[in-house]
Write the structure tokens for this entry.
Amino acid sequence: MKVNQQAIAEILGLDRTTVTKILNRDPKYSASPTTRERVFRAAEMLGYDFATIRRPFKREHGRTEMNSPCEITLTLDDGTVFDAGTAVVRNLSVGGALLTGLNLGKQVLPLRSFTILIQFPEIPELAGLVGECEVVRLAGFAETGAPELGVRFVNATHRDRRRIADLVRKLVDLKVGRGSVGEQRASPRADGNAVRGGAAPAGADGPGAEAGPRS
């Protein structure tokens, strides 16, 4: 028989709302590390299906696709390194990121409260930056069979946020064609009109005009 959040709450003597917020890792809910550990440990022992968690999640910042490899380290609240490995940053924003392709030694997430440290060795613009994150969303099982972690940056300095913001703007500009290699920019004409790609409008004289008799 499947155990639900109400059963976990009754066994622990907690309110169901408390159990729900802890299992969903609600970033706005404050609970002691001891209470969090009790809830996750009880859920695991009772066979709770963590994949059934569905929590609406609203992003505070827009994100841009990038699909870049990164290095991640999972650390517990006492500073102990729980695991380390690699992942792919599928998209990025000033507020956080979506991590896919998780490759960790233990292949599990800790039941205790933890943070994720992200480094971006293949992104020159973020060289040396270590992003401290907390998990705000766990998804991806239904679509790909593999977990995806939505994380939020915490304790980020103003300089780090500025570096991420500059990179996001750069990626957006490249996607819409501003500043990309081979871009066709508008070149001015003597009459004040612009010609894109070096082609002149029909009927115009010059290198882009079509040759032929005039009527």
Q: What stands out?
A: The longest strand covers residues 64-76. The domain at 64-170 is CATH 2.40.10.220 (Thrombin, subunit H). The first helix runs from residue 5 to 12.
